[in-house]
Amino acid sequence: MENLIITISREFGSGGRQVGEKLAEKLGLAFYDRALINLASIKSGLDPHIFEQAEEEATSKFLFNMAIGGYVSTGIFSQVSVPICDQVFFAQSKAIEEIAEQKNCVIIGRCANYILRDRPGLVRVFVYGDAKDRLHRITREYGIPEEKAESRLTQVDRGRRNYYEHYANEEWGTLKLYDLAVNTSFTGIDGAVKVISAMVGQPSEV
Question: Ramachandran region of residue 13, left (φ > 0), alpha (ψ -120 to 50) or beta?
Fold first, then answer.
């Protein structure tokens, strides 16, 4: 039987990471967010901080490369000159594919829904929310000052959009790319977990 893989793409401040973490706990699945970064970092030889920047700070491919050193060859890329942003994507893709082969899991962001698009057992979820609720969450839970919250929200969403659209060549957030879209302003975090878990059921042991 194919592994159950749930990918969660999310708007900044929608609570998508919390949804994924609680969902994994409820269903007994492995959870990959920071752990995915660590795995890709170890295998590629790239600094983990670069992976953290990739999706949320890269408002454009050019600026991302400039910000972290342009063309740098390390680890598995030591024999060729590959742009940093491409090194990050290739390393993350490899880690995501290996994880999907090994176990039932929830994967947050990182273009996982695109990378695993042809894999049986994949469930693609998009988590979003109303702007006012997202702004409230990032000030209350992430400690971002109110006067900076709106610009930060726009910046992170733009980075995620540009990162995804560059590598997937698809429009980030388009509903046809997902099996389920959940508005946490309507469901709340726990309600979103219930909706997704009801859809996927309880996975078999592997």
Answer: left
Average confidence (pLDDT) over 158-179: 89
Domain residue extents for the chain: 5-197
The residue whose two tokens read 């726990």 is 190
How is residue 36 written in tokens? 């995915």
What average pLDDT does the structure give for the chain?
Answer: 85
Residue 204 — φ and ψ, nearest 5°? -75, 155
- φ, ψ at 123 (rounded to 5°): -125, 120
Q: Report the share of the chain in percent with pLDDT over 70.
A: 82
Does residue 65 have a pLDDT over 90?
Answer: no
The per-residue DSSP string of 109-162 comes to STTHHHHTTT-TTEEEEEEE--HHHHHHHHHHTS---HHHHHHHHHHHHHHHHH
Structural domain 5-197, CATH architecture:
3-Layer(aba) Sandwich (3.40)
Highest average pLDDT, of 42-51, 55-64, 153-162, comes from 153-162
DSSP character at residue 83: B
AA identity, residue 173: G
